[in-house]
Structure formats: structure tokens, C-alpha cells
């Protein structure tokens, strides 16, 4: 059985981006890691940016699957939002590629990385928006502007998980859940 060259290239590029970042990764490195000729890469991807997009697209799918895995229909909407956001940010903070990309954006401001991280954030907001729309249709929460609410949920959660820790003791998962319920989700609850 012939090796799946495309898959080998994507895996090698993921490894290279995780180790060296987007800017420092070259197609030569990817070819060497994949054990293919550089020309082989170009039969599947027209440039490094397209290869990067493929990897990020797969990463987003993995993140969504992780979030869906923790949602339990029997739990209140607010608890499921917390569980999904916690899992998404946990994935982001433990996945080597995401760690490297966030670091590269902070240190170098690489435009392609900034755009891809924005894409990841946009996909998370779309995911949250769909969950909020479903909750509204089921009557679990009142009608709200789903896009603004999704944006605020994500930004508030990121602030509580990451920004807070710069100058304070880290918050526990339960503390974050209570703060989210108290400040933002309380207005979305229906008779809870």
C-alpha cells in the first residue's frame, strides 16, 4: 500500500509549525520531515499559506469535536456553555501548535498567524452562536443577539482564564462558572 503523501506532508508541516512557528517554517523543512521532494508538496498545496490553512481547518474541527464531547443535554444551557468553553480553551492551551502560534503572534506579530488565530476565534463564535440559537429555539433561554452574546461569552471566558492570571491567583473551573453565570449568563437563564 502506497503511503499517503498528502497526509505525511500535513503531519510534517504541523510538526514544523509547532516547533518553529509559521514564519520560520520552510517548505524545505516540511519536505525533509515528510521525507518527500519539495515538488511533491506543491502537487497538493500551492504554497505554505494554503498548507497552513489546511492544518488550521483540521485543528478547528478537532476543537469543535472536543467541545461537543463535553456537552450533556440533561445539564442547563449555562453549564454546557461553561463546559464547552473550558474544553476549547484547555485544548488551545495544551495543543503544541496553538501554543506556538499564540507565542509567535505575541512576539513577532506575523500577519498570517494573526489571521489564522482570528479565524479560529471566529469559528468558536460561530459554534457558540449555533448552540445559543438551539437553546433559544428550545425555549431554554430568551431571544438575544446571538452573535454579540457569543462574542462576549468567548471574550469574557478568555479574560477570566488567561488575563486574570497575569496578576492574580488562577480561578478554579467552578469559580469561572459562577462568575459567568452571575455576570453574563444570568440574563440568559429562564427560570433556573
UniProtKB/TrEMBL annotation:
<dbReference type="InterPro" id="IPR023772">
    <property type="entry name" value="DNA-bd_HTH_TetR-type_CS"/>
</dbReference>
<dbReference type="Pfam" id="PF00440">
    <property type="entry name" value="TetR_N"/>
</dbReference>
<keyword id="KW-0238">DNA-binding</keyword>
<dbReference type="InterPro" id="IPR036271">
    <property type="entry name" value="Tet_transcr_reg_TetR-rel_C_sf"/>
</dbReference>
<feature type="DNA-binding region" description="H-T-H motif">
    <location>
        <begin position="26"/>
        <end position="45"/>
    </location>
</feature>
<dbReference type="InterPro" id="IPR009057">
    <property type="entry name" value="Homeodomain-like_sf"/>
</dbReference>
<keyword id="KW-0678">Repressor</keyword>
<dbReference type="InterPro" id="IPR001647">
    <property type="entry name" value="HTH_TetR"/>
</dbReference>
<feature type="domain" description="HTH tetR-type">
    <location>
        <begin position="3"/>
        <end position="63"/>
    </location>
</feature>
<protein>
    <submittedName>
        <fullName>TetR/AcrR family transcriptional regulator</fullName>
    </submittedName>
</protein>
<dbReference type="InterPro" id="IPR050624">
    <property type="entry name" value="HTH-type_Tx_Regulator"/>
</dbReference>
Amino acid at each position: 500500500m502506497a503511503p499517503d503523501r498528502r497526509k505525511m506532508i500535513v503531519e510534517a508541516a504541523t510538526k514544523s509549525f509547532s516547533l518553529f512557528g509559521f514564519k520560520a517554517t520552510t517548505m524545505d523543512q516540511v519536505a525533509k520531515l515528510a521525507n518527500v521532494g519539495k515538488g511533491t508538496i506543491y502537487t497538493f498545496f500551492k504554497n505554505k499559506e494554503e498548507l497552513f490553512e489546511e492544518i488550521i481547518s483540521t485543528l478547528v474541527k478537532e476543537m469543535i469535536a472536543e467541545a461537543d464531547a463535553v456537552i450533556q443535554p440533561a445539564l442547563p444551557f449555562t453549564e454546557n456553555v461553561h463546559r464547552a468553553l473550558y474544553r476549547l480553551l484547555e485544548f488551545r492551551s495544551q495543543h503544541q501548535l496553538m501554543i506556538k502560534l499564540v507565542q509567535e503572534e505575541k512576539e513577532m506579530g506575523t500577519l498570517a498567524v494573526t489571521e489564522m488565530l482570528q479565524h479560529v476565534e471566529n469559528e468558536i463564535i460561530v459554534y457558540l452562536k449555533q448552540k445559543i440559537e438551539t437553546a433559544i429555539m428550545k425555549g431554554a433561554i430568551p431571544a438575544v443577539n446571538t452573535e454579540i452574546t457569543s462574542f462576549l461569552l468567548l471574550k469574557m471566558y478568555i479574560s477570566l482564564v488567561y488575563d486574570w492570571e497575569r496578576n492574580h491567583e488562577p480561578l478554579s473551573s467552578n469559580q469561572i462558572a459562577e462568575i459567568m453565570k452571575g455576570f453574563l449568563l444570568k440574563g440568559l437563564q429562564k427560570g433556573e
